[in-house]
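Slide 14.
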Amino acid sequence: MSGITLGSLDLAALLCSRVCHDLISPVGAIVNGLEVLEESKDEETKTFALDLIKKSARTGSAKLQFCRIAFGAAGSAGAQIDTGDAESVARGFIEDEKVKLTWKIPRIFMGKNRVKLMLNMLIIGGQAIPRGGMLTIEPIGEGESMGFRVSATGLNARVPAVQALLDGGSEGHAVDAHAIQPYYTGLLARECAVKPVIGQEGDAIVFTAQ
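Slide 15: predicted structure.
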């Protein structure tokens, strides 16, 4: 496995690209809804356009709130984050008609990098169930040294091919805006002095960091 040498500017640029990728769909839908609203003459179409705008605005807001903590500064160096706030943004980002989240992390203040790790683990867990299902996150240990276990169950659940990126390698492939998120998750894990491991246990895809 070849290691990755990624400068701080490239890391920042790729994370920005990842955030833009998450936001472009709801923002584009808002623009489309406004165009339909301006051109429409009948009430049914106007109602449809307004519903689209409202739904897309809620989705965009939820993604922004999540990305602010998962990828952003979220406070000064050494800052702590309420895990209750982390649960709230995680539910807004993840839960929909296909995916549900079971949250078993106690409500405490936790170092921001550990909270970032937790949220990024949930993103990867979601990739394991492309057709929907259940994500469960629970603690391993307690306090400031707490680790995490994310279990993903659903139809056609599969192990995402991210272990090399989590370990800081690339298997010979360039890191792009798609690959930067698991690579960043590995950086967070090393900063928190835990080892990220993803694999299959029975019908569940299990991602641990401890």
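Speaker note: The radius of gyration is 18 Å.
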